Automatic annotation (TrEMBL):
Main localization, broad class: membrane
Cellular compartment(s): Cell membrane
UniProt keywords, alphabetically: Cell membrane, Membrane, Transmembrane, Transmembrane helix
Name of the featured protein: Nucleoside ABC transporter membrane protein
KW Cell membrane (keyword) present: yes
Its membrane topology: Multi-pass membrane protein
PANTHER family per the UniProt record, alphabetical: GUANOSINE ABC TRANSPORTER PERMEASE PROTEIN NUPQ, SUGAR ABC TRANSPORTER INTEGRAL MEMBRANE PROTEIN-RELATED
InterPro entries, per the entry: ABC_transp_permease (IPR001851)
GO terms for cellular component: plasma membrane
């Protein structure tokens, strides 16, 4: 097995003629840049847009005239779009696209911050960064669960149910025991239970994996909703008052401007999520287990020929994915909120989108999760400053970002070749 090399082969784009994918994206980016320059520039005010490097309006800040900033950053997006339309080399695509999108977002923020009511025309960057990571946490855990499953050849649409069962189990057993660690273990077991059902029916009985995932999501919603009404609503003090993990401050690192207070004054879920990204990435691409996992997800027959126990490895990885997702669900009920019915609210499906957007890579999934977390945090911030944008649209912002990212930015990607295909040993 050690001599077997498994490579991720990218599918070459098939765009032909003038309108390649780069030029199409460039045209969209140019339109967004013109919109930002003209519309956001006109709606912004002459008030300063302040981006403070703290948790409030005090302290050092980056300042720019609202109208000037909206126009200037809009022109950055225009320039990025023009560069793509001019036939940008492929190796610069991601960088220029990122610069253009950042320019568009900053133009939008200059309008919103400068037009905010007096006393609210500032954006506390520490709070934005901290909120982005907090809101991205369940997405990070969920996307990592998807990586573990789909790199093994099993489609994991049940991330929503795994997160929900983890949140419920953590709240229930944490409340009954009065011990936050018991709640964390119970959350991991709850997520693993959903994964066990996925593994048995998909791997052993060859049930369609997508259909099975949807069924398990509905099962988790039904079971947790029923027990919530029968137990937690009738006696919340006993069944829905789990203790919370406290924040842990890391000396010296927590004093780093901007990132320090946001990243190094967090709870165990923040540190564990970032650590798992690193560990799974190294394990997946630098260890024998990772080589075997990728081979099972790409060419299970060849892996079986070389002595890899394909079904056993899939079982183990799917169960491990459930443990990871269950812990992600506990980040709600053991750190932030009490349990409520269907409290995950579609985050499992956004985690699935982050998995695809991140191209089935742990680090890519992390970046995608942070992108969606920022969209969620931005909606919260705009609501707090009484933005003129309707609240209904703000509530849709994370989901719109998901659709745009997967449909427009991710481009052509290739899932593991055996993903979703049951393996029948000959």
């Amino acid at each position: 097995m050690s001599t077997m090399a498994v490579e991720d082969v990218a599918v070459a784009p098939v765009d032909q003629g003038f309108w390649t994918r780069t030029r199409k994206v460039g045209a969209v980016l140019l339109a967004l840049g013109l919109l930002a320059t003209v519309l956001f520039g006109a709606l912004a005010t002459g008030e300063q847009a302040r981006f403070t490097l703290s948790e409030d309006a005090a302290g050092a800040a980056l300042k720019i005239d609202g109208t000037l900033g909206a126009i200037l950053f809009g022109l950055v997006a225009v320039a990025a779009g023009v560069a793509m339309l001019a036939g940008l080399p492929k190796r610069w695509f991601t960088l220029v696209l990122g610069v253009g999108l950042v320019g568009f977002v900053l133009s939008f923020l200059c309008w919103q911050v400068s037009a905010a009511p007096a006393g609210q025309n500032f954006m506390p960057l520490v709070n934005i960064v901290r909120g982005t990571f907090i809101l991205a946490l369940p997405l990070i855990f969920g996307a990592l669960a998807g990586v573990l499953c789909e790199r093994s050849g099993v489609v994991n649409v049940a991330i929503e149910g795994q997160l929900l069962m983890g949140a419920f189990s953590g709240a229930l057993f944490g409340s009954l025991s009065g011990n936050v660690w018991v709640g964390l273990v119970a959350a991991a077991i709850g997520g693993a239970f959903i994964s066990l059902l996925l593994a048995v029916f998909s791997i052993r009985y060859l049930v369609d994996q997508v259909v099975m995932g949807i069924v398990l999501n509905l099962l988790a919603v039904g079971v947790t909703g029923f027990l919530y009404e029968r137990l937690m609503q009738t006696d919340a003090q006993k069944y829905n008052s789990a203790p919370r993990f406290s924040n842990w401050e890391i000396p010296l690192l927590s004093d780093i401007p901007l990132l320090g207070p946001a990243l190094f004054r967090g709870n165990i879920f923040l540190y564990l999520g970032l650590l798992l990204v690193l560990v799974i990435h190294i394990a997946l691409f630098r260890t024998r287990w990772g080589l075997r996992t990728r081979s099972v997800g790409e060419h299970p027959t060849a892996a079986d020929t070389l002595g890899v126990k394909v079904l056993g490895l899939r079982y183990r990885n799917v169960l491990l994915a459930g443990v990871v997702a269950g812990i992600g669900g506990a980040s709600y009920t053991l750190a932030l909120y009490s349990f409520t019915k269907n409290m995950i609210g579609g985050k499992g499906f956004i985690a699935l989108a982050a998995l695809i957007f991140g191209r089935w890579s742990p680090t890519g999934a992390l970046l995608a999760a942070l992108f969606f977390g920022f969209a969620d945090q931005l909606a919260t911030y705009l609501g707090a400053i009484n933005s003129a944008i309707p609240s209904q649209f703000l509530a849709m912002l994370p989901y719109l970002a998901t659709i745009l990212a997967v449909a427009g930015l991710v481009g052509r990607v290739r899932a593991p070749a055996a993903d979703g295909k049951p393996y029948i040993k000959g």
